[in-house]
Design goal:
It contains 6 helices and 10 strands; from the N terminus they run ααββββαββαααββββ. It has helices at residues 19-37, 57-70, 114-121, 149-157, 161-169, 179-195, and strands spanning 78-84, 90-96, 99-101, 104-110, 124-131, 136-146, 204-209, 213-218, 226-233, 236-242.
């Protein structure tokens, strides 16, 4: 196979200093200036005294989520979920928290989705919550277990019609041929969800992350952030403060 010279009009062949290059440089500079000019925690933030924290992380998490909702944080139950495939390559996405109880933090997905496949290969994960109105973050990590089919079905059918319709569409993370194909599948799924509110979705799976480590981060405008870390060691929770 012979090599061919790049076409004169291709981007790679464009001589340095052309108007297009200047426009690219200006756009990059404007983007950097935008990032540097964005304000962080430009509001009164709550204080957090770690000496008053409960012995276990769950009550504090519930309290912080309630306070985030009361402060007007939109969708405070959204979280990032980080998983890794069999080779250790990480991936992250945003989804909803379904519950947090003595068993752990609950979320759900299709078994065949990317997150489902990765949790099968490596049943460990990390969660991240961020509530900017109060300058707070919570990080949770630990092993993940799969709930049974009855509990998974109950989780789905306690949710909205739209959630059931989305689950009925299925094929999550597969390659989509066109937006029209999605529209047709979604319309059929909505019709079935309204007609059959208990429609089964066998691939829908409830996952429970059992925490081994939970960190609470309270931001401070002067950057004296408070970080309280819980670690589960030898059957009990231990607390430690971390440098910001």
């Amino acid at each position: 196979m012979s090599d061919h010279p790049a076409h004169q009009d291709s981007p790679d062949a464009r001589p340095a200093g052309t108007p297009a290059q200047h426009a690219d440089d200006a756009d990059a500079q404007a983007f950097r200036e935008l990032l540097r000019g964005l304000r962080v925690w430009d509001a009164d933030l709550p204080s957090f005294d770690p000496s008053t924290a409960p012995a276990e992380p769950l009550p504090l998490f519930r309290q912080w989520l309630r306070e985030a909702a009361q402060a007007g944080v939109p969708e405070p139950h959204t979280m990032t979920l980080a998983t890794a495939d069999a080779a250790g390559n990480p991936s992250v996405r945003t989804l909803m928290l379904h519950d947090a109880d003595e068993r752990g933090w609950h979320f759900a997905s299709h078994r065949g989705s990317r997150k489902g496949r990765e949790l099968t290969a490596r049943p460990r994960a990390a969660l991240g919550f961020y509530w900017p109105a109060v300058g707070r973050q919570v990080r949770v990590s630990g092993p993940v277990t799969v709930a049974g089919p009855e509990e998974s079905a109950a989780d789905l059918h306690h949710r909205s019609t739209g959630a059931l319709a989305a689950a009925l569409v299925g094929r999550q993370s597969e390659v989509l041929g066109s937006v029209e194909e999605l529209a047709r599948a979604s319309e059929a799924a909505w019709e079935r969800a309204r007609r059959e509110p208990a429609a089964p979705v066998p691939s829908w799976t409830l996952y429970v992350l059992r925490p081994e480590e939970v960190e609470f981060f309270q931001g401070d405008a002067q950057r004296r952030h408070v970080r309280l870390n819980y670690r589960y060691v030898n059957g009990r929770w231990e607390q430690e403060l971390l440098w910001p």
